[in-house]
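assembly run, all chains below
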Amino acid sequence: MMLSKQSEQFLIELRMYLISKGKNDEEINEITEELEDHLLEAQAAGKDISHIIGKSPKEYMKSIGNSMKTDFRQMMVIIPMMIFLVAAYFSIGPAIEGKFALSGTILWLAFAGGVMGILAYGILLFKVIPKFYHSVWGYVIAGVIALLVTGAGVVLLLWYRDQEATTVFVASSLQNNLIVAACIIIFIASALYSKSWVSIVIPIFVAIGPLANRFLPKEINEDPVFMIMTVIVLVLVSALGSYFIWRKYRKTSSQ
Amino acid sequence: MADTTQMLKGILDGCLLAIINEGETYGYELAAKLESYGFQSFSEGTIYPLLLRMQREKLVTATLRKSTAGPKRKYYTLTEKGRHELGEFIQRWEQLSASVEHVLNKGEIDR
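ok done. output:
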């Protein structure tokens, strides 16, 4: 028996609400599974979802959140992890190209960009996506916003490249390689921690450009045919990848 | 009948303890039993915040077990502390209901 769309929607909103309130992952899984079980049985008995969660889902979510303790230890891991991740995203490209350098401006930029990025994605993940969980338009809007935010970041970085900034630190080639290694460790650690491939897949895409810059001969690198082919291959790979992730997700969520 | 939700607060805890005391049970069954005892106007989900709190206060313990269909099911049993709390609830309730009874019937308790 499948859970009704309304119930599924409620469980997603509840999960996101509890995550955003810093509750323990394991406890979140337990309570959502318990409610899923209850909703399934209630549905089989012909009861409406409001019979279980009351008239205001929001109030009900709050009452559940209030009876769970906030997991500060987990937050102590997540917040530094986010900061390291943002730093790693910023650093891996330049470090692969052997051009890692720090200036006052880039530090501020990374800080401001990081904070805004986390805020924007946080709102998107916890407030916007749960609301549109079942509508195609929701995905389109979320996708466009994500692209815009990422695009704004790229524009900012390109703008920064043209600025004359006084560098406070320029990495040697050994240091560049060490930074790359550190970034890889951060990405793997965060993938293991979050049990998702996201922080492996995105860095691979981020790293392709700089890798090509570093290892491909200049003639090939500037050949337009080669560039177009790369773009086509990348688009195909990412489309296939998203399709498989989507299919896997549909399977697990309908179990 | 007017909203009984406010009145139920505090009483539901004790009733849950009493039902769990009858034997190991899980969320949906608990709610169904409450309904069968006459609690009709409450939303079933209200038991979960209470169960979460009772677990935190070590009044009940929970074990996850595979269910016939769907996700794993969480079964609750009463702890020693829970049984003690249930005893106290019964005492409090008897006093309270007697007092309310007296008020409503305008009777007075001999002191």
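Chain B touches chain A at residues 26-28, 31, 43-46, 48-50, 52-53, 56, 64, 67, 69-74 (CB under 8 Å).

The CA atoms of residues 59 and 84 of chain B lie 9 Å apart.

not gonna interpret more than that til we talk
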